[in-house]
Q: What sequence folds into this?
């Protein structure tokens, strides 16, 4: 049994070993992004399961940030917080990004498949997730005057993740840096278009349903 | 079955209907007084003030009633009502047991000046010794009278280029300090407070508000036509609408001229405390700025009581607590020395405790006197007195200010048992605990009120305490962290050497 087909079922021990290995591999990606991302998709060092795990950790991290960050640094107005909305506000952009990026790059000789784009994006998020999980306990140790340390940490995580994202795209699609940056901008434009179309669609559907409902009411009213 | 459910729901509705318009035994709605919490959400509060007595125009029916009274002043037991429409000042004395007696009607005076009467006086200030300063609006002067109504001096339009010589001197509000210097707010003067020496000499302006240049407006100006530019008057500095003196001799001024958008950012400063050189030293450490209402009525643009609070008058009580009178919703807002809102109450209406066109507020001890210019029923003076709850809040603040922290915490706890929504009480207890070095407990109270600054301070001290108490374990852990990696490397190296030796 080759390494690729080993442990297809997550009940097997091999599956868990592979997951553990691919999660651990994210540290290699963080510090050696060029080779890291190349091997991640081309040598199948990364797994979909690990990518899913990172996305789940991102969601959990967001919710834990809301709950456990000290009141000095984050005040949450709980009556207005909706867990599903919070999750959607992270998942929707991520999903739309992956689809747009894949769609656009495929048209222009990008090597990455949708799965590869998703895995690379998820691995690129790791520094941000780490910064999030470090800043939660840290916020309960620092005072307000020392709070700038937190924003530095968070900023560092974000910048690192952004850099990883760029390098990841370079390696996954086998693009040059300039082309990657161009396609990142194009992806953002594409995302805006997708969101616009989604909103348009939803509005039209709700208008359509509203029309049918009011028609029903009107007929009902006339008949009685 | 279905009918049973309907009957049950009906019963619940009936019960709710009985509860909903819950009125106190004396007819007060529970929502007469309110505060805001950290999230700027409206919170009902027990009443801090209730109406003690009303003095209406009918009480002066035999001398023609009150007509558009504009000014109010309290010195000791005496209340001076400036009855502007009748060109006179009514001096009355409130009785302890309620009711009042008339002391005198000041409508003319003696002395070597003309005229010897007032023409639409707007305000009065009376010194300890009974010397009076009257803002005689239409006569364009401020007159100083001794306690027996002999004319002493007139303060008139300054013969000075600093004062715009094309403008009239129209004194509308004034105060005087202990040595007799007079500080006047004149209509259409926006350079600040007009200051006169005790001998009548003009001595410049105090506290002109700085003109703020707004980038957005500046850009508009660049593309606007000349006519449009002429119509933009947002570069005019603000004119103060009222003035009061506190115990320490600082001026409290209020202004109604500001940009609504500046209120939320704290740039509007509708209430200011000015020092002698005119800098604003008002402390605004509360959860929100000192701007009155935080939730504004929206909707119909023709409604006069729409938008933010506009402050008409201010009075400063003991311990730097001040009350501002708002003319948008005719409410009174109380603030403590730190700028925390203590309470808000009042409203538009004819019932007791509601006002038609309130123009002035003064205090006598902790009692509040509110002069209403009046609507359909003519002018009136409302005297409001503290409830048990209000007295308790004052006591707690006073105890803290005088250093009785433990007692203050106890009083605040009492307040809290009457009003669990009261952020000021949580902060008050927290601050008292902080002074008693009970940091961990203080943190809990600050957290309840979302007071991050005080929480941070308490946590800093608590952290120091924790470090001091656990210095030995912390030292051991730190030493271990520093020492382990080199030790580990060493062991591995020895192992490796042993292995190499064996091979």
A:
């Amino acid at each position: 049994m080759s390494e690729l087909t080993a442990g297809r079922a997550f009940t097997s021990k091999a599956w868990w070993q592979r997951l553990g290995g691919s999660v651990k591999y994210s540290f290699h990606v963080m510090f050696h992004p060029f080779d890291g991302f190349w091997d991640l998709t081309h040598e199948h060092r990364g797994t979909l399961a690990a990518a899913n795990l990172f996305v789940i950790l991102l969601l959990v991290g967001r919710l834990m940030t809301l709950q456990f960050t000290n009141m000095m640094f984050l005040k949450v107005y709980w009556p207005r917080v909706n867990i599903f909305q919070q999750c959607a506000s992270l998942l929707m952009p991520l999903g739309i990004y992956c689809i747009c990026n894949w769609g656009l790059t495929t048209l222009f000789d990008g090597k990455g498949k949708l799965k590869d784009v998703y895995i690379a994006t998820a691995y690129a998020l790791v520094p941000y997730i780490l910064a999030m999980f470090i800043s939660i306990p840290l916020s309960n140790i620092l005072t307000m005057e020392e709070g700038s340390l937190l924003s530095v940490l968070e900023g560092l995580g974000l910048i690192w993740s952004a850099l990883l994202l760029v390098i990841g795209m370079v390696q996954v699609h086998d693009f040059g840096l300039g082309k990657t940056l161009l396609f990142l901008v194009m992806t953002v434009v594409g995302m805006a278009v997708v969101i616009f179309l989604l909103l348009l669609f939803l509005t039209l559907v709700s208008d359509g349903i509203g029309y049918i409902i009011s028609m029903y009411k009107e007929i009902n009213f006339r008949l009685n | 079955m279905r009918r049973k459910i309907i009957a049950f729901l009906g019963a619940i509705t009936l019960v709710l209907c009985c509860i909903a318009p819950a009125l106190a035994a004396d007819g007060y709605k529970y929502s007469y007084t309110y505060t805001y919490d950290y999230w700027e959400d409206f919170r009902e509060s027990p009443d801090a003030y209730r109406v003690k007595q009303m003095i209406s125009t009918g009480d002066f029916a035999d001398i023609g009633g009150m007509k558009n009274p504009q000014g109010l002043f309290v010195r000791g037991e005496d209340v001076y009502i400036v009855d502007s429409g009748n060109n006179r000042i009514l001096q009355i004395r409130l009785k302890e047991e309620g009711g009042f007696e008339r002391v005198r009607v000041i409508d003319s005076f003696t002395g070597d000046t003309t005229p010897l009467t007032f023409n639409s006086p707007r305000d009065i200030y009376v010194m300890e010794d009974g010397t009076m300063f009257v803002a005689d609006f239409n006569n364009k002067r401020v007159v100083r009278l001794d306690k027996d109504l002999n004319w002493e001096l007139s303060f008139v339009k300054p013969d000075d280029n600093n004062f715009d010589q094309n403008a009239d001197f129209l004194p509308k509000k004034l105060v005087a300090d202990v040595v007799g210097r007079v500080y006047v707010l004149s209509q259409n003067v926006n350079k600040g407070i007009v200051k006169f020496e005790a001998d009548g000499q003009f001595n410049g302006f105090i506290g002109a508000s700085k003109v703020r240049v707004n980038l957005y407006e500046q850009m508009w100006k660049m593309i606007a036509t000349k006519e449009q530019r002429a119509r933009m008057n947002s570069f005019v500095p603000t004119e103060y609408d009222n003035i009061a003196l506190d115990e320490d001799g600082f001026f409290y001024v209020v202004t109604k001229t500001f940009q609504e958008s500046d209120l939320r950012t704290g740039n509007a400063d509708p209430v200011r405390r000015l020092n002698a050189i005119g800098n604003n030293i008002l402390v605004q450490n509360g959860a929100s700025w000192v701007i009155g209402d935080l939730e504004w009525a929206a909707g119909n643009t023709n409604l006069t009581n729409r938008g933010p609070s506009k402050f008409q008058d201010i009075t400063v009580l003991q311990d730097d607590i001040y009350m501002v009178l708002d003319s948008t919703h005719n409410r009174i807002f109380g603030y403590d020395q730190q700028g925390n809102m203590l309470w808000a109450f009042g409203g538009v209406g004819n019932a007791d405790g509601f006002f038609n066109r309130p123009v002035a507020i003064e205090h006598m001890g902790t009692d509040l006197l509110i002069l209403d210019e009046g609507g359909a029923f003519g002018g009136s003076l409302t005297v409001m007195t503290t409830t048990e709850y209000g007295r308790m809040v004052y006591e707690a603040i006073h105890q803290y200010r005088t250093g009785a922290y433990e007692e203050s915490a106890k009083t605040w706890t009492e307040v809290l048992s009457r009003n669990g929504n009261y952020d000021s009480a949580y902060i008050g207890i927290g601050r008292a605990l902080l002074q008693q070095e009970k940091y961990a407990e203080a943190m809990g109270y600050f957290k309840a009120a979302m007071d991050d600054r005080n929480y941070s301070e308490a946590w800093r001290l608590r952290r120091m305490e924790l470090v001091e108490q656990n210095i030995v374990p912390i030292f051991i852990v730190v030493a271990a962290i520093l020492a382990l990696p080199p030790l580990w490397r060493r062991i591995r190296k020895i192992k490796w050497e042993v292995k190499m030796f064996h091979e």
In short: The two ends of chain A are 74 Å apart (CA to CA).
